[in-house]
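Thread: Newbie trying to understand structure tokens

Hi all, I'm a second-year student working on a class project, and my supervisor (Dr. K.) asked me to get a predicted structure for one chain before our next meeting. I've only ever worked with sequences, so writing a 3D structure as a token string is new to me. If someone could post the tokens and maybe explain what I'm looking at, I'd be very grateful. Here's the chain:
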Amino acid sequence: MRSDNLQKCVALYSKNLVTEIVRDILEKMRAEIIENHIIDTSVENIGLLVKNYLKNMLKPSLKKIVNASGVVLHTNLGRAILCDEAIEALTIAASYPVNLELGLENGERGDRDSHLEDVLCRLTGAEAATIVNNNAAAVFLTLNTLAETKEVIISRGELVEIGGSFRIPAVIQKSGCKLIEVGTTNRTHPSDYISAITPDTALFLKAHTSNYRVIGFTSSVDLKELVKIGRRYSIPVIEDLGSGSLVDLSQFGLPGEPQVRESINAGADVVTFSGDKLLGGPQAGIIVGKREYLQRINKNPLKRALRVDKLTIAALEATLKLYLQPEVLSKNLPTLKFLIRPVSEIVLVADEASRLLRQRLGKGYSVEIEDGESKIGSGSLPEEVIATKVISIVHKEIPPEKIFEMFLKNNPPILGRVRKEKFLLDMRMIEKADEVAIGS
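---
Reply by user tm_fold:
Sure, no problem. This is what the structure looks like when written as tokens:
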């Protein structure tokens, strides 16, 4: 600890921290010596190990990733990239005190939902709106509020599992409700819902099967029909839309996805959806619907446990307000911009990137441009793909899995994928060629 190297570390950090790290390093050295390994136990080497340990320990664990995986909304990469307006709003909210719960007209305490409710109602046609920290929380809070200890009826074909083995049946049960399954995996009829109704039935729940499809001999009860049954028997209908598109994607040449406004117009009493999927904003669970149900949801004590902070509100408000300007939405919203990016533009970047890669990788590597397919990701439109261009990289002696690891160790890491014995870089989300040029 008295050595020059460690004294410099103490001056930069703290004596207690440096002491703990020295002890950890010495303990590892003792273990390796016991295993008959040859270890450099000089003070100089220990000082160098401590310095490197501190340097790595204090680096941010969240790193920029170059997404060449072919999945636009990649759950493991944080899903949607925020628009410039959201980033600017985040910076202000993070840098200064803001009127999160302060009424500027009278100086009295306000409601944090007020920053979002009006724009959400305008975009969806709902009477009221609120937000929580993700869509699973939105479903959980809605069910707990409106159906705790009572029965929730749902089709077996909609008992989906989402990312991380998170299952709709588990959410229903943890919310304090009794799950009632009707129909079969592939076929559910109106009579199935009607025959399951009892005096304890509190809700019909409809879950959009956004991350899988059942095809062939199938039938299901659409939302309008379920709403009719609900009205007849005075049972509210809740729809979990998952991705939650706010616009008609087909106008941009993309496959259609159910829109929140359509569900509201069809008569759903409450609709929940995500903020960081097709909407293109930060992680959030959005709840919209009839005012009488939203008022009850907002009074639930669990709402405070699931509420979002000022950063999420700032980013989500800025993102939502882009939708009020539909003529510039496709240019300003990164998620939509990347989804509709023309192949003619992608190939120009791929040409330049392939030339750089040939130079950087050197002899032995084959670098070619090929046709490929991108996916939307995050459980949205699972069967649909978008035409793209990929750069394939192969080597006679190096397996594609090793090339994958090599690119992932780049600074910044480059995430591609391995397919048919080739390492592929999907260029749909790459705007500058040098982003995928390893070693740059």
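A couple of things are worth pointing out once you decode it. The chain has a mean pLDDT of 93. Residues 148 and 177 are 5 Å apart (CA to CA). Feel free to ask follow-ups in this thread.
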